[in-house]
Design a protein that fits this description.
By secondary structure, the protein is of the alpha+beta class. The protein has one domain: Alpha-D-Glucose-1,6-Bisphosphate, Chain A, domain 4, CATH 3.30.530.20. Helices cover about 25% and strands about 50% of the residues. Strands 1-2-8-7-6-5-4-3 form an eight-stranded antiparallel β-sheet, covered by helices on one side. Helix 2 packs across helix 3. The longest helix is centred in the last third of the chain and has 27 residues. The relative contact order is 0.23.
Length: about 180
């Protein structure tokens, strides 16, 4: 009996938390611009995934690096949001603020443009696309970020890509968990 219970416990620990996955991930550095392309499959209905990704006041529930997010101003199809993140590349740790204009032009898109006057980025453009698929939801992220802070060349890009993959897996797990529990 104890052996069977231990086997079931071990099996439950080995079972993945999500069925989603990172399909493609690329980080390139061109000068001081970081170009990011990420494709994920989320095992959850696309309406719920879209709702959680566009709930700007609760982005910290989706990510380990986001410390706080809040809506500063709301319009019809546009919101001004603040996202504060913390992360480390090698021994360089930093708290980063992004004030962004978030628009939802429809068709599953979310566009974020950084306000360089209030952000730690000279420029930042991010485009999310959330689309229904037979096997759940496909999410694509494309971004062009130009930080004001220094990131070590070569090794910094490699570590940034590694962190992006880890954070993407966390995002997938959190989105799936929240979508399962959402009404």
């Amino acid at each position: 009996m104890a052996r069977r219970l231990a086997s079931l416990l071990l099996l439950s620990l080995c079972t993945p938390l999500s069925a989603g996955e990172v399909l493609h991930s690329q980080v390139r550095r061109e000068g001081n611009h970081f170009l990011i392309h990420l494709q994920m499959r989320i095992d959850a209905p696309h309406e719920r995934v879209y709702r959680h990704l566009s709930d700007y006041a609760r982005l910290d529930q989706l990510s380990n690096v986001i410390v706080r997010s809040r809506v500063l101003e709301k319009g019809d199809n546009q919101q001004r949001i603040e996202v504060i993140s913390e992360g480390c590349v090698l021994m360089f740790c930093r708290r980063v603020t992004q004030v962004q204009i978030a628009t939802t032009p429809g068709q599953g898109y979310i566009r974020l443009i950084d306000d360089p006057q209030q952000s730690d980025f000279q420029s930042g453009r991010t485009l999310w696309h959330i689309a229904p698929a037979d096997d759940g939801t496909h999410v694509t992220l494309s971004a062009d970020l130009q930080p004001r802070f220094w990131i070590p060349p070569v090794i910094g890009t490699a570590i940034f890509k590694h962190r992006l993959l880890n954070e993407s897996t966390t995002l997938i797990n959190n989105l799936e968990q929240q979508a399962r529990h959402a009404p």
